[in-house]
Design brief:
Oligomer: single chain
Radius of gyration: 11 Å
Shape: elongated
Distance between the termini: 16 Å
Helix content: 55-70%
Structural class: mainly alpha
Number of helices: 3
Number of strands: 0
Strand content: under 5%
Amino acid sequence: AGKLGYASAGALADFIIVDMVAEAASGDKSPKEAIERATKRAERYYKV
């Protein structure tokens, strides 16, 4: 998983994973689209 820190706290507070699963499960986005969106959102916290 990794160390807890500001990046992980921010990502959790922004509900990135929760939103990704909800978008895919509801059919709002395809699983691939939901993953791509979550990746872009996470990059704000994890400067990759």
